[in-house]
Design a protein that fits this description.
Elements (H helix, E strand, L loop, with lengths): L1 E6 L4 H11 L5 E7 L4 H11 L3 E4 L2 H13 L5 E4 H10 L5 E4 L7 H9 L3 E4 L2 H17 L3 E4 L2 H10 L8 E8 L9 H4 L4 H4 L9 H9 L1 H13 L7 E5 L5 E7 L4 E5 L5 H9 L30 H12 L3 H17 L7 H12 L8 H20 L5
Parallel strand pairs: 1-2, 1-5, 2-3, 3-4, 5-6, 6-7, 8-9
Antiparallel strand pairs: 8-10, 10-11
Helix pairs in contact: 2-3, 4-5, 5-6, 6-11, 11-13, 13-15, 14-15, 14-16, 15-16
The chain binds magnesium ion.
Length: 390
């Protein structure tokens, strides 16, 4: 029986994970759940999964949820805030932590799980982008393991988790759906609406990652994630647009063989794999019928059109604190787009302007990371107020 804490149980990944877990009551026990402000859903989840703890955003939501649970005589204890998330990520009774909080907000709790040597099911790619080698090192030092939930990295992990010699890997090819705009022109891109950008053709995901998919920053962050996770030179990581999202990435070896994982684009597949690794369990998702998918397409991404992807590669080349800068600035830019302050194409313009002004610094601790993140956000907000973007 694995005892699990879910960081971000009300999001898209968290909900999918709970659906998989529900299929296997003999294998998994939910120790703690956590969300941000979706109290109604947390209440529902508490009634169904009866966790020992639930963590909410702040004291106000904690009081509200506690009250609702007491009315039903449900004994779950409700905690709140950053200390709460950290507490459930590092608790001695927990073996497995699903890190599914979106954005930089997930970093501190994911790091706590690494410090305590947990099995981390990593859906929060931003924490790998920000903490990079530090997160992997801390996890390894404490006999933990990080299993990627991100579908592309999960596919690669399935292929190379027992790979002895890294030199046998020629390259990693991350597939990308290309999002809703892979076929649009640059001119069309400058006029897309929030609704257009939130319409992802294949995957049903949260708002932030859906916008990231539309700009292809998602793939950029995934290239950075892959470089750190698999300890591979970024020059050996390529991106290939594959609009059908059936092949979830490839590994090319030096003998010319390429291996891959195929599956229906449903996050329950990589989640089930990460939950049960090295065994396999039912995910509730049917396999793909290739006889019905006879039109699989592949195309190289246009780095002028999808500037964010190019900028992510640039950040890997620069190293140091650049991956933290791009992640922080992107979060501010996506927020600004979603609140109608900037146009879609200005997302990459804001990031590029910020990166041009950034200076690299050495990263040695989580405090260093958080400081760079904080300063990058301040700078990005200032740029938003400047003449170029206001
Ligand atoms: Mg992905």
């Amino acid at each position: 029986m694995k005892t699990i804490s879910i960081l971000g149980s009300t999001g898209s990944i968290g909900c999918s994970a709970l659906e998989v877990i529900k299929l296997h009551p003999d294998k998994f026990d939910i120790f703690a759940l956590s969300g941000y402000e979706n109290i109604d859903l947390l209440f529902k989840q508490a009634m169904e999964f009866k966790p020992t703890y639930i963590v909410t955003k702040d004291e106000e939501s904690q009081i509200k949820l506690s009250g609702l649970l007491k009315e039903k005589n449900q004994g779950t204890e409700v905690l709140f805030g950053p200390e709460g998330y950290k507490f459930i990520a590092g608790h001695v009774k927990v073996s497995t932590v699903l890190a599914a909080i979106t954005g930089a907000a997930g970093l501190v709790s994911t790091m706590e799980a690494a410090v305590k040597g947990k099995r981390i099911l990593l859906a929060n790619k931003e924490s790998m982008v920000m903490a990079g080698n530090l997160l992997s090192e801390v996890s390894a030092e404490n006999n933990g393991i990080i299993i990627p939930v991100d579908s592309e990295h999960n596919a690669i992990f399935q292929v190379i988790h027992d790979q002895k010699n890294q030199n046998e890997i020629n390259k990693l090819i991350l597939t990308a759906s290309g999002g809703p705009f892979w076929n649009s022109s640059l001119v069309e891109l400058s006029n897309v609406s929030i609704t257009d950008a939130l319409k992802h053709p294949n995957w049903s995901m949260g708002r932030k990652v859906t916008i990231d998919s539309a700009t292809m920053m998602n793939k950029g962050l995934e290239v950075i994630e892959a470089a750190y996770l698999f300890k591979i030179d970024y020059k050996k990581i390529e991106v290939l647009i594959h609009p059908q999202s059936i092949i979830h990435s490839l590994v090319e070896f030096i003998d010319g063989s390429s291996l891959t994982q195929l599956g229906t684009p449903d996050m329950k597949v990589p989640i089930a794999y990460a939950l049960s690794f090295p065994e396999r369990i039912a995910s509730g998702v049917r396999g793909i019928d290739l006889s019905l998918s006879n039109d699989l397409q592949f195309e190289l991404p246009d780095l002028e059109k999808f500037r964010c992807l190019k900028l992510a590669y640039d950040c890997l080349e620069q190293g140091g604190s650049y991956p933290i800068e791009i992640n922080a600035t992107n979060e501010i830019a996506v927020d600004a787009f979603l609140s109608k302050k900037i146009k879609f194409t200005q997302i990459s313009e804001l990031i590029e302007t910020a990166l041009n002004e950034a200076k690299s610094s050495n990263i040695e601790s989580i405090e260093d990371i958080l400081e760079v993140d904080k300063q990058a956000r301040i700078k990005a907000r200032l740029l938003l107020k400047g003449s170029k973007f206001a």
